[in-house]
Amino acid sequence: MLRIALMLLAGGLALVSAQPGRENATKPHILFIVADDLGWNDVGWHNPDVKTPVLDQLAHEGVILNQSYVNYVCTPSRTAFMTGYFPYRVGSQHLVFFPQQAQAIPSNFTFLPEKLKELGYATHMVGKWHLGFCNWKYTPTYRGFDSFYGYYNADEDYYTHVVAGGLDLRDDKEVVNTKNGQYGTYFFADRMVDIIEKHPADTPLFLYLPFQNVHEPLEVPKRFENIYMNVQNENRRKLLGMVSALDEAIGNVTMAMKTAGLWDNTLVIFTTDNGGWIVASGNNYPLRGGKVTLWEGGTRGVAFVHGKMLQKTGYTNNELIHAVDWFPTILAAAGGTADDAMDGVSQLDTILSGQPSPRTEFVYNIDDVFPTKQGAIRVGDYKLIEGTAGKPDGWIHPANLTDSQLDSGDPTTGTWLFNLKDDPTEHHNLADTMPDKLKEMQAKLEQYRGSLVPAINPLPDPKSNPKNWGGAWSPGWC
Ligand SMILES: *[C@@H]1O[C@H](CO)[C@@H](O)[C@H](O)[C@H]1NC(C)=O
Ligand SMILES: *[C@@H]1O[C@H](CO)[C@@H](O)[C@H](O)[C@H]1NC(C)=O
Ligand SMILES: *[C@@H]1O[C@H](CO)[C@@H](O)[C@H](O)[C@H]1NC(C)=O
Ligand SMILES: *[C@@H]1O[C@H](CO)[C@@H](O)[C@H](O)[C@H]1NC(C)=O
Ligand SMILES: CC(=O)N[C@H]1CO[C@H](CO)[C@@H](O)[C@@H]1O
Questions:
Q1: Closest ligand to residue 223's CA
Q2: Which of 219, 249, 434, 443 would staple 430 via disulfide (CB 3.0–4.6 Å)?
């Protein structure tokens, strides 16, 4: 697979550089936008009740990615984006990193912006990190970003920027304590625009924008909520308002790119980090389950790409892509090559011209820790889940968000085999009727399990307490 990937990668570069009529033969600017907990059924191109005009237009002008997979929760997906490795090979496969635990991506993994800097890129990040902060060496400006404006953890209040008793907002290394009462999406978008306005056009720009929206808590300025006055369920109304706030912020970012003259040479990659969190009114209908589950609703992410360098646009691409692929893909677009050992493969030709994906299989997750062992893989059209698949389970329509479906239904531990080509919504478990296929898939999962790295999951450390650090979550205790 790697050899094929390298060949495709060389082809992809030729396509980029051979494009006629380009004024600037410079490397493309790259806008890598990650939405937080944005569900399959929470974007306008899947659900006309959702108002995302900016994203809809970008998606329709570009290429909608219909089989773009992510991990089941936040830290693992961000691990995949930043390292190009499946989280189970890094040690970050077990849920998310928590503020009180000394958890981080080990230093021997090179992060994507470090590679891009070697290729001459300016690298900036605005938003959520969630890849470890207990030592400065694990934080964004020590892992390849020229600048960082955002937060280390997850789940903070959109107005106070506090999570679990500590302020979590930084400008590079400095604590920001002047934003209490201001909705995060506004000032994060302002910072994004500011970076773009100050950026020298002759330097390639890598802008990593992992947005806070639409993660819990459900908070949004009234004017966004008011777009959905027809929605009865208050939580759902707020969630949708948060989606529209995200959309407006991305509109401001794209407008700034145009004004700065960068847009025509910009490759936009948009993806969610995992499926919608049904408990907080996110929705993945008609897919099964959502965030924190290995069902398709948790792992098949909304995504698209956009840019003038795309050769074929305005269609839905059904090729198999996984979160680990963005590292080598972005690197290839920037004129570099990824490490051979990496799990990710370049999808540059897949997105540029609709070539077949070099990927035929991937690992959804392997975790031996919680609540029981879990493992899931895809090979060709088939998917195997063994152990805990996660909850909420089922096919939950937005109209049914408040009912008991949220926590009842099928058992969440078992063995499932699906043919996703025929059954993308995982209604028909083939484990009993296809015993040979099941054995083959189980053997494959065991093979993958051979490279499992133990989860980084130490007990909470009292040294982390923000009281020891002037009230903010701070590096320095591991
Ligand atoms: C980093 O070190 C760990 C532990 O030795 C190893 O499992 C992993 O493969 C290494 N990763 C890289 C990218 O070198
Ligand atoms: C987008 O820009 C407009 C015009 O500057 C501003 O009024 C609005 O608050 C911005 N929206 C977001 C979400 O930042
Ligand atoms: C809503 O839930 C009810 C009861 O569980 C079920 O009969 C109905 O089909 C569901 N509606 C949708 C649109 O899924
Ligand atoms: C997207 O994938 C689904 C299968 O999950 C398929 O039914 C649908 O036709 C695909 N969309 C397009 C436009 O190809
Ligand atoms: C990014 C970049 O190099 N932009 C340049 C593209 O070319 C025009 C004129 O050909 C310049 O004005 C831009 O600065």
A1: 2
A2: 434
